[in-house]
Amino acid sequence: MKNGIQLFLSFTTESPSETGVGLTHLGKYDKLDLVSSRWDIVGPSKANMVHATPLHSGLRQRRRRFRFSLRTLLLLITVAAVCFGMRVNQARRQEAAVTAVGQLGGWAYYDYQYVNGELMPDAKSPIPEWLLAVLGQDFFHDVVYVNMFYTFNRDGGITIRYKNSPFNNKFADKVKEQLPAFPKLKFLFLAGTQASDDCLEVVGKLKRLETLYLSNASDVSDTGIAHLTDLPRLRYVHLSRSRISDESLRLFGGMHQIEELSLEGNRITDNGLEHLKNLSTLKTLNVKLDDTHITIAGLAHLQALTNLQVLGIHRTEVTLEGVKRLMKQMPKLRIIHW
To answer: pTM for the whole thing?
Structure first.
């Protein structure tokens, strides 16, 4: 045991590194357990060696990991609180904007009310009612559909707030002040003076917009259309009786995601149609009504549009003979002319 005692003294009087491992020959002893306040020493019988493992080192490492985990937890809680606060503020802005749209005579619908391409105003939110009562539907859902023109009734009919109505003339384009609260808006319907060049400047920032319907938009010009050119998801545009010219057709011709273009009653000409000849995504084109100055010569520019399926040209300057000729040139095209 003398050697063992000397070994014990050597470990207690020296200050080995807490991260190191000490090895000492025991001679004839196969196993020796020494317990001190700092070391646990065991010698394997085959190697006749003592392996010293620091006890406090592991404890300190665990403490460091605990401190690190606590800091991480506090950071995550802070980030979550900031995100929650931002969402609450956005929900409040959206709720106020929905109320304002209603006061302006329009309707706003949420994402759960537009399912599989169909508007369902009576649909119910999948969020539990108790959560909706606490946080409100604007916290969980985004407005995707705003219509200042008409809405659907429960019996399947349509309520129109435009003709001979005070809504448009009274509020003009004030709806533009509410649109920034709907960053995920996909469908927007405006009529009369609700649509203007200034309003379209705001609309041009709604990057998720897919459908834009502007009826009797007498305050919209080429300047307003220029604001729409950076909308990557815009596929359907209806613009009737506005002040646009062939310049707007040039702008539309550069928007290669557009699939349907309805330009009723606008003063566009054959030269304008030439700007659409490279719009390969176009499936439906409507250039009907009296103010359009379209002839068969202009329609010749559309022959390169292989995806074009429907062409509306009634009440234009295209004659019946011209329609027959166009049908021979584009046999798969459905032409609406009367």
So the answer is: 0.74
What's the 3-state SS for 20-69?
CCCCCECCCCCCCCEECCCEEEECCCCCCECEEEEHHHHHHHHHHHHHHH
Give 164's contacts (C-beta < 8 A, 6+ positions apart). none
Q: Give 112-121 pLDDT, tens digit per residue.
A: 999 888 889 8
SS3 11: helix
pLDDT in tens, 14-69: 444 444 444 444 444 344 444 444 444 444 444 444 444 555 555 565 555 555 68
Total residues belonging to the chain: 338
Which is higher by pLDDT, 85 or 26?
Answer: 85
**86 forms bridges with which residues in the sheet?**
none
Q: Which two tokens stand for residue 239?
A: 């613009």
Q: Is residue 226 within 8 Å of residue 201, measured between CB atoms?
A: no
Residue 212 carries which side chain, given as an amino acid letter?
L
For residue range 188-210, what is the model confidence (pLDDT) as tens digits? 999 988 999 999 999 999 999 99
Q: What is the CATH number of domain 93-336?
A: 3.80.10.10
The DSSP string of 183-236 is TT--EEEEEGGG-BHHHHHHHTT-TT--EEEEES-TB--HHHHHTTTT-TT--E
User: Kindly report the CA angle at 206 between 250 and 221, in degrees rounded to 5?
Assistant: 35
Rounded Cα distance between 76 and 320, Å, is 70
Are 258 and 237 spatial neighbours (Cβ–Cβ below 8 Å)?
Answer: yes
- Lookup result for tokens 């190191």: 20
Give the torsion sign (CA, 97, 99, 102, 107): positive
Q: How is the chain split into domains, by residue range?
A: 2-61, 93-336
